[in-house]
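Worked Example 4.2. Consider the chain below.
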Amino acid sequence: MSAAETGRSDPSLAEEDGPARLATPGRVRGGERPRYGAGVSHRVLSVITAAAATVMLVFGVAGHSRISGPVILRFGRTTHGVHLDDLVVLACWLVAIAMCLRLWRRG
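Applying the procedure from the previous section yields the following structure tokens:
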């Protein structure tokens, strides 16, 4: 059958592909989905994300603001120490690193 007889604009598609297969979003010929960003490995993305999360951890812990909360662990007689918000920043960093480890194992 020619492309004009089947009503298809692409004659390279076989008849057995069927209209249901062509109507499925995100599908291409052969049943494979297109891979966006396929040139970057999961491990590279994991390292970049871990580095960014670590930079945010340093800025979050080293910073000083009015919303830092009370000092939980004091270093000496000054106000230097571990504040309540440092624990929140640390918890977020731990979640980010856990996701990076999962991404690292994936690829």
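The mean pLDDT is 75. Residues 1-34 form one domain. Compare this with Example 4.1 before moving on.
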